[in-house]
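User: New here, please read:
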Amino acid sequence: MKKNVAIIMGGYSSEYKISLKSGNVVYDYLDKEKFKAYRIHILKDKWVYVDETETEYPINRSDFSIEIKNRKLNFDCVFNAIHGTPGEDGLMQAYFELIGLPQTSCDYYQAALTFNKRDFLSTLKPYGIKSAESYFLNLGDTIDTDAIVKKVGLPCFVKANKAGSSFGISKVYKKENLGMAIDKAFKEDNEIIIEAFLEGTEVSVGVITYKGETKVLPITEIVTENDFFDYEAKYEGKSVEITPARISKEQEKNVSKIAKQAYEVLKMKGYSRSEFIFIGNEPYMLEMNTTPGLTTESILPQQAKEAGITLSQLFGSAIDEALREK
């Protein structure tokens, strides 16, 4: 009997349009013989099931069910394709745990931790996982540009602490431009992380649970036309993503080991995509995404393809894993 799968997409952040694209790809590629898929839009003003005719049916939030033609439909599993809040920061994960509905991404604590760049990187430091020198700011703090430059140097990156897709990020070369970059980051979040610039090869490493085992996917090298891997580079063709990456065997071994270590130390499940920059042969962790882009052009699907995993297999395995855990 087919399993009813709710594909949640959209979200409350600047990434909602990207999430809708990811969710629709999952909908298109899910195995129709095994799953009956439903597109669920989770938006600030509504939670609705959207059918093929674009008719909307409201979600009953008490048990995440829908009613179609006076018949109640419950779901067997939720496929999480929301980038940003509330799908990547733990809110939806906690909700589904409370109502006892299996879902494909990591648990709520891991989602909240990895979504918070400052806490995430701080948690991994005791395990020897390196990251750039950083400076933290909260909205309302006194901004001491001299102290910032003394700590992280120039150029540096100013980032919203809890945001994705490079929203709210700036690369700053001059001290007098820090204020503008900080204001931009605060538009996305009330917390900021300012990081030292690391010059080296940037790579993205997918680690997933696949058929019950932790699997490191082929590594992707990021080569951008822009000053860094910003929104344009990610989504508007201003970068080249090379899979497998043009790195040495030692670099590949080192970054694969650390990516897998981070995944297992944090007791992750589902998908993850971690970003690193090499300084020599040493990988420095930038961040981890727990609901990475899932369009056909996105990095994780590229890596899966290189590993011989089709999108149907990639998406189906995540659902199988969530149902098995239940």
Summary: The CA atoms of residues 39 and 53 lie 12 Å apart.
